[in-house]
Amino acid sequence: MAKIMKLGDILEIPLGNGENAYARLYREGTLGIYAGRYHSYEEMPESVDFFRFITLYRNNLSRLQVVGNRPFENEEESWSPDTVIVDAITLKGSLYHHGEIFECTYEECKDLEVCAVWELPNLIDMLNGETKWDNTLPRPKDV
After folding, report:
1. Residue 135 CB partners (closer than 8 Å, separation 6+)
2. Are 84 and 104 in contact (CB under 8 A)?
3. DSSP secondary structure string, 62-100?
4. What pLDDT, on the 0 to 100 scale, is given for residue 142?
5. Rounded Cα distance, 9 and 67, in Å
6. What angle do CA 132, 133, 135 make, to 5 degrees?
7. Could you tell me the pTM of the whole model?
8. Does residue 47 contact residue 38 with C-beta atoms inside 8 Å?
């Protein structure tokens, strides 16, 4: 039976070296991954910046343990930051904002995270310093 997770849940991501990363669950399976590595959730400061926002496949989310919850103050806050969708053929970028897709210029989207759905092992590799997953993502160009 699938785990039922709630927005704001804090998920533990074991890194395989005795340390963990922690992430807050946003809409659409997106994880706000907190900066830093910790041996337990209790070690993580109450106020810590996000390292990155990554979306995981639903079946991968269910493999993570919920260790806490930090509720969102309102619906707007439960959306992760905007991302850019890059067409694999044209490399033209589109803005992904709150579940909707909009046209955008290169200047509007050049600094945004590229929208992709990750497998858990690839996420763990990336958190452990492996960069090959990011290098395979196309970057938008001005068309």
Report:
1. none
2. yes
3. TTSEEEEE---SSTGGGSPPPEEEE-TTT-BEEEEETTE
4. 43
5. 8
6. 65
7. 0.85
8. no
